[in-house]
Amino acid sequence: MRLHQVWTSALLALGVLSGAAFAEVTVSQSNDPTALIAQQMESLMGAERSAVGALPPSKLNALATGPKVVARTAPKKPGQPVVIEYSEAWLMSLPEPEGDAQWDCLRKALYFESRGETIKGQFAVAEVILNRVDSADYPSSVCAVVGQRGGGGCQFSYVCDGASDNMREPYPAEIAGRIARVMLDGAPRALTFGATHFHTRAVRPGWASRFPRTAAIGAHLFYKQP
Fold it and tell me: Scanning 40, 150, 174, 199, which has the fewest C-beta atoms within 10 Å of its C-beta?
């Protein structure tokens, strides 16, 4: 019994001394925070080295080269702007237009037939031309539609007026080119409701009394051939 008490006392004393030593170390580290941080960093880096060393070669290569960056571009939908704004500011915010002979024919038609109109009025004239291209009653290209002759005259007056087809006003030509590009790229034709004809308010051709009118925009009245 006495021996048991001696051993118990010895163990308690050892515990007290160990606790005192632990407390002393803790106080010492708290007085020197850099030593504690250094120890923690060393421990973390050691663990990291062990983890990296256990990785297969393919994973190590991926870590060394970094993540692969893939350039993503918005899907191209030819000619379908998400939102169309009938304004000069919106048109001028688009990329510089370019195109083939069909684009050139359309922009010239817009320039000579409607450059004095509002932006919406110019879009409306473009709709008429493209509606004709899509109709079985007219040629199947822009150039053929705007250059069509018949009945002793031309379908579009500027073709037969004898004047030069040189677009002398740069800014209206720029606007016409941008509208032509947007429309050829497939912009919705929402202004004239399928119109195939138009005329200014100053004249009244014979067909105007036979064709239903679909829209009136600016100086132009629009009609759809029955």
Answer: 150
